[in-house]
Known about the structure:
By secondary structure, this protein is of the alpha+beta class. The protein has three domains: 9-96, Orthogonal Bundle (Butyryl-Coa Dehydrogenase, subunit A, domain 1), CATH 1.10.540.10; 129-237, Butyryl-CoA Dehydrogenase, subunit A, domain 2; 244-396, Butyryl-CoA Dehydrogenase, subunit A, domain 3. The protein has twelve helices and ten strands. A four-stranded mixed beta sheet has the order 1-4-5-8, with helices on one face. A hairpin with a 7-residue loop joins strand 4 (175-183) and strand 5. Helix 5 runs antiparallel to helix 7 and helix 7 packs antiparallel against helix 8 (291-319). The longest helix is centred in the middle third of the chain and has 37 residues, at 243-279. The termini are far apart. The protein binds flavin-adenine dinucleotide (FAD). The site of flavin-adenine dinucleotide has 21 residues, from strand 1, strand 3 and helix 12.
Amino acid sequence: MPVNPDHGPEAVELARRTAEFVREVVIPAEEEYGGVTAAGGEALRTRLQEAARGAGVFAPHVSPEYGGHGLDMRGRALVFEEAGYSLFGPLALNIAAPDEGNMHMLEAIATPEQKERYLRPLAEGRVRSCFAMTEPAPGAGSDPSALTTRAEKVSGGWRIEGRKWFITGADGAAYAICMARTSGEPGTRGGATMFLVGADNPGMKIVRHIDTLDEAFFGGHCEVLFDDCVVPDEAVLGEVDKGFEYAQVRLGPARMTHCMRWLGIARRAQDIAVARAADRQLFGSRLAELGMVQQMIADNEIDVAASRGLILQACRELDQGRSGAQSTAIAKTFTAEAVWRVVDRSLQICGALGISGDVLLSRFLREVRPFRIYDGPSETHRWAIARRVVRRHLDGRTPGAQP
Length: 403
Ligand SMILES: Cc1cc2nc3c(=O)[nH]c(=O)nc-3n(C[C@H](O)[C@H](O)[C@H](O)COP(=O)(O)OP(=O)(O)OC[C@H]3O[C@@H](n4cnc5c(N)ncnc54)[C@H](O)[C@@H]3O)c2cc1C
């Protein structure tokens, strides 16, 4: 990845070591298991994480107090892209979703006791976690205000009732961060609260693994039932009724870290396609010398470079403590679509080989498609981007001016 003045020497060195680690240790494991983390199970996760610790690249995002390297968002952009060069890289470095986003949020809002109990074991890779927000219709999805899961105050704690789905990593997670309504009605924003719910709570049940297009996320995507799920007052993460605000603390950076990781896969797809185009002879020339293939290679390069620039711009704002609402939405929308285009073109360049399991391109294609839906579908982001632009125009209009 090109380095620029935004990146400090520690991040540059960590990115270099991460690239080396991914090439030598992670990609062989990814190829062995066909890019499906579940195929290697807990033993694979432990082995890769131990190797990452040994290579000094483990937990680049967490503060040193919790055993990490404490990179800012711009530093993460550099390192996460290198880790994302393999589907198994984020798992190895302990920066896979949803754990990485949960660590970020716990560092920002958990109490010291909650940090010791929930953040430390997660940061050290001793446990996994999940984030339970989305519900089957008519509940929360693109529109969080549709939230139907409720938490009622009971003596000494809260009782949570509701059904969630598409909860990544729920099976095997030590705990869930569950978003539940604590005031207002579905369809009105009202107030939501985040609760830390231990997997040993008899009121939290994994109903099923949802069969999905993608398979690279550890623990799959589950439907989870909260049924008479009683948690103590200490399970409240942050303050009651502030859950929607906290979700923004998690979502802006989490959107960007997803982009960084998937950008790594886009680059890998391009490398596979370029290697093939440089070798394959067709119609009396190299494939790479045919104009339409050159166009695809060039468009891939443009999509990767443009995504990287947008991610870095958004990270710069987040590092400055700004909300980054508009810049993260722009970067997420563009990158999710660009990564899909890059993988799709790369597969096209490889012909039938791209469809086969002999290279991982068809696996990458299946893995990147859902990114245009989670962390906000492209349409939701475009709608929000346009609304901000129009609001800016209306706010800036002088009284009496022509509309
Ligand atoms: C692989 C995967 C992993 C996930 N992991 C998690 C997880 O760990 N935890 C969790 O809580 N959730 C998770 N989700 C859920 C994800 O966050 C939701 O799928 C997403 O928020 C969209 O909600 P929805 O699926 O209910 O779609 P809906 O809200 O029903 O939206 C359907 C479609 O409507 C369109 N649309 C949306 N907004 C607008 C608009 N303003 N204008 C026009 N059209 C619009 C879009 O095309 C959208 O795809 C995951 C989803 C996937 C696919």
